[in-house]
Fold this protein.
Amino acid sequence: MGGNFNTYMDSPEISFWRNLCLSEGELRRYERGEEFVSIGQPGRYIGFVMKGTLKYVTFSEDGTEHVVGFEFPGEFVTDFPFSLYGMPARVSIVADSPCEIMCVATRLVTERMKSDPELPGIVMRSTENVFSTVYDRYMSLYRKSSRERYEELLSRHPDLFSLFSLKDIASYLNITPTHLSRLRKNI
């Protein structure tokens, strides 16, 4: 299958966000376990990941962590588009390894949207692309077996197990770590 792990990265609007972060961003460092975005708080930055990996997590009522996404070097990290509108994040975005991220304040983008007639269109198309990525993942939970989801995940990022824990990958696939171990053993 190949391609980018996060399929929104294949969209033409990505060059705008990359250029914005690299030309106007500030380098920020995050240690493993440090939050880039905290659940319940508006995200303050749009970031381009230079180094490191991050995971998107949410929590069930009993406090169990559920991994719902990953970010890699060369990708973007933000609670998009909610951070642009000052809305509370529905996820926490946590550094899973030491990260270097070129960050642009969301308030800068929000202000620029008022004066740049092309920017709202870029935001809209970017939102559609992120939605498409998330919706495809959601649909695969119903249309594909755990084995098919696992194989697709590995085809998009073969070195995933060297970057994230088995527990986090199992959570992302919505299966138990034991089931994931069996899948790995049988493939």
The beta strands are 26-30, 35-37, 45-51, 54-59, 65-71, 76-77, 92-95, 99-105. The domain at 7-143 is CATH 2.60.120.10 (Jelly Rolls). The chain has one domain: 7-143.
